[in-house]
Amino acid sequence: AFDALHLQQVPRTPTPYAVASVDGGGSYWHHRRDGTDTGTMVATELLPRLAESGLDTTRLGLLGWSMGGYGALLLAGTLLRGKVRAVATMSAALWTAPGDSAPGAFDDAEDFRAHDVFALRSALAAQPLRMACGRSDPFVRANHAFVDGCAPSPPTCASRPTRLRRSGYGP
Prior knowledge:
Largest sheet: 4 strands, mixed
Order of helices and strands: HEHEHEHE
Number of strands: 4
Structural class: alpha/beta
Number of helices: 4
Helix content: 10-25%
């Protein structure tokens, strides 16, 4: 996914960065009834391994596409709160009601409410947030609803409906 960035050609600088990713499977980045919990795996396994490798894990940026976009928002507002400096999503898999979610995304309506990223918007207020979603994407309405409820609220959000943003990052 990052091949086009040509990261190997970036010269070493005093502020190096790393890109790390994991496959979250189909668990939607939260504790599931079957015991799966990929969000906790990121916080308690991936980040410690990165730190053991000498990387600074105190300043994180999260990027997620679809289910990963939902996960980036969820982790930034819960398990990684205070460590995340910015969040970017592409076509975040968001729903505004439990009955709207994809089959298997949540165990039941109670699980949906317990992991509702819309309820985390105040916890995410300090993070720069960039959300992108195509006009015909099935998640575009929920992505707009999420951004519209963020503080600071629109008009700082721009370029509806294809690009959504808050906190001064990009057009």
